[in-house]
Specification:
The complex is a heterodimer of chains A (about 350) and B (about 200). Chain A has about 350 residues and is of the alpha+beta class. Chain A folds into 3 domains: about 55 residues, Molybdopterin biosynthesis moea protein, domain 2 (Alpha-Beta Complex); about 110 residues, Alpha-Beta Complex (Aldehyde Oxidoreductase, domain 3); about 140 residues, MoaB/Mog-like domain (Molybdenum Cofactor Biosythetic Enzyme, Chain A), CATH 3.40.980. In chain A, about 25% of the residues lie in helices and about 25% in strands. Chain A is built from 11 helices and 19 strands. A 6-stranded mixed sheet of chain A has the order 15-14-16-19-18-17, sandwiched between helices. In chain A, helix 3 packs antiparallel against helix 4. The longest helix of chain A is centred in the middle third of the chain and has 13 residues. The two termini of chain A are about 35 Å apart. Chain B has 2 domains: about 140 residues, 2-Layer Sandwich (60s Ribosomal Protein L30, Chain: A); about 35 residues. Chain B is built from 8 helices and 9 strands. In chain B, helix 1 crosses helix 4 and helix 5 crosses helix 6. The longest helix of chain B has 16 residues. Classes of the chains: A alpha+beta (about 350), B alpha+beta (about 200). At the A-B interface, helix 2 and strand 13 of A face strand 8 of B.
């Protein structure tokens, strides 16, 4: 592509304006532009440029049909960035980072992103879909590969992104009114101390939420169902039940949720830990059945589904099945979630 | 750039009164412009296009800063970050050089040292701030500001329509909530209520 751009010998380059940023890499110390696009090469720059391996420099050669990488990447980023996604005004080394404009859930349209990357001379790499992100977090990076890109190719990439817009967006989290029903005869009878309240409270707290109420009930199908009914009627938006999700005769929470009228109801998920997870809905209320694994494992399927519920999504059984690749927690001695493969679908 | 005295007089006139905040703001703005290599953006079209100023408080000093620099909200050269801190950041868009200057809390008490002849606290500060050395008056930090493209001056690049109230939302200020694109008032709540 750039073979058509005229080259100038470095010895003859004094006075030339650089056609692109020139990157310097000092291992373990620095990687970034040492010279910026547009810099007028001075005599004293020649040694530095030669140390960077430069023996020739390009003479800028753009026109209406040949777009410089910096202008191109602004068009690419504009087409890719949907609501809640922004980017800086100055490309660096031809690249732009897309960033979160506010806290929320990153949504990535994966197929269009792959289609985009199938177009030669452009690229975009991103974080995983459904990742909770903080304002300012880097979500993706994009660039045109060559120094100068054909207008037709650039237009094709922009059209691909626009056709499926938004390829990247960030959904706000809702401050859901959340209540907890802790089930289990052993807790209700005081034989063991409850720890679910603090576990769930901490997980909600990470999103700035607090439990409005929590209650401990025995494994009594009718009482649990009545409590769920009460919460449904008082406008609770997220009901979390813990325990009673397994196969023992005393595990009745799942039936209680059904008895309270939840529909649809999805039981079991392709995630370990969390195979016996339950997700159900009634009206606008989401009901989560958290199995006992939530007490033992610091991170479970609950951590994957909670942000999606807070973002207003209603995951179904297919969503739960799609968690299969990446759904295996490796139980690392030191948990690094979310910086690991757990929950990184596909 | 005009002298400190001339700028202070003009700033006080624009603001409505002469106060310690005017002295702080004028000095802060003069220093900020100098540190980022701009001479007189208020009177130079070429320079004002290179300048973005972030102010972190909406008090007297802010008016002085905008007077001295010529930065304006409507030109998008002035950004208000509601931190409640007497500080401002000056960015040279051409060179990417940026400096954040914050007024020190200790300067309030030090004012008496530099204006001992004045007994009134306000007068002490007004005169003391004129004479106080920079290093006692301010904390000056070189910073990097990655200005989002939607905050840059120039024509509107981004528009969305609120799905609830149909307002046109410019400059990527919309939010995505529960599958809908909304303006911030509809999505996050507004600063006003409509009487019944």
């Amino acid at each position: 592509m750039n073979n058509t751009s005229p080259k100038i010998r470095i010895e003859d380059a004094v006075g030339l304006r650089l056609a692109h940023d020139i990157t310097e890499v000092r291992p373990g110390e620095y990687k970034g532009p040492s010279f910026r696009r547009g810099h007028k090469v001075r005599n004293e720059d020649l040694c530095h440029l030669m140390r960077l391996g430069k023996r020739h420099l390009y003479q800028l050669d753009t026109d209406l049909n040949r777009i410089h990488e910096d202008e191109a990447v602004l068009e690419l980023a504009t087409a890719l960035a949907g609501p809640g996604v922004t980017f800086g005004h100055t490309p660096q080394e031809g690249k732009l980072q897309l960033k979160a404009a506010y806290d929320g859930l990153l949504k990535v349209k994966c197929e269009p992103l792959i289609d985009f990357n199938m177009i030669p001379d452009v690229m975009c790499a991103s974080m995983h879909n459904n990742t909770p992100v903080k304002k300012g977090a880097c979500l993706a990076g994009t660039r045109a590969i060559p120094l100068v890109i054909d207008r037709a190719v650039l237009d094709r990439a922009v059209l691909t992104a626009r056709t499926h817009a938004p390829v990247f967006s960030v959904k706000l989290f809702n401050p859901l009114k959340s209540k907890l029903i802790i089930t289990g005869n052993e807790i209700y009878d005081g034989l063991i101390e409850d720890r679910f309240e603090s576990v769930v409270g901490d997980k909600l707290g990470a999103y700035g939420l607090a439990l409005s109420e929590s209650v401990i009930l025995p494994d009594d199908e009718a009482r649990i169902a009545n409590q769920i009914q009460t919460y449904l009627e008082d406008g609770t938006e997220l009901i979390i039940t813990t325990g009673g999700m397994s196969v023992d005769p005393d595990d009745v929470t799942r039936e209680s949720i059904r008895r309270a009228g939840a529909d649809p109801m999805f039981y079991s998920a392709a995630v370990l830990p969390g195979a016996m997870f339950l997700l159900a809905y009634k009206g606008n209320t989401s009901i989560v059945g958290m199995p006992a694994c939530g007490l033992f494992h610091p991170i479970t399927i609950f951590d994957l589904i909670l942000p999606r519920l807070l973002a207003g999504e209603k995951p179904d059984n297919r969503d739960l099945a799609q968690l299969a690749p990446g759904g295996l927690c490796l139980n690392c001695p030191t948990c690094r979630f979310p910086n690991c493969s757990f929950g990184k679908t596909g | 750039m005009d002298s400190f005295e001339i700028l202070l007089e003009g700033s006080a006139r624009e603001h409505g009164h002469l106060c310690p905040g005017q002295v702080v703001g004028v000095r802060m703005a003069m220093l900020g412009c100098e540190r980022i290599g701009l001479n007189d953006p208020r009177n130079s079209l070429e320079e004002i296009k290179k300048l973005i100023v972030y102010v972190e408080i909406d008090r007297c000093a802010t008016d002085a800063i905008t007077y001295v620099t010529g930065a304006k909200l409507g030109r998008r050269s002035l950004k208000f970050i509601d931190n409640g801190i007497m500080a401002a950041t000056f960015v040279n868009l051409e060179t990417d050089i940026a400096v954040r200057i914050a007024s020190t809390e200790t300067s309030r008490d030090l004012a008496a040292k530099y204006a001992p002849a004045f007994l009134d606290k306000g007068q002490q500060q007004l005169e003391g701030y004129k004479r106080m050395p920079e290093h006692e008056m301010f904390v000056i930090q070189p910073v990097k500001v990655d200005i989002p493209i939607h905050d840059m001056p120039g024509p509107t690049r981004f528009k969305a329509v609120c799905e609830q109230c149909q307002a046109v939302v410019r400059d990527k200020k919309e939010v995505s909530l529960n599958g809908r694109i909304l303006c911030r008032t509809c999505g996050l709540g507004g600063y006003y209520t409509v009487p019944e």
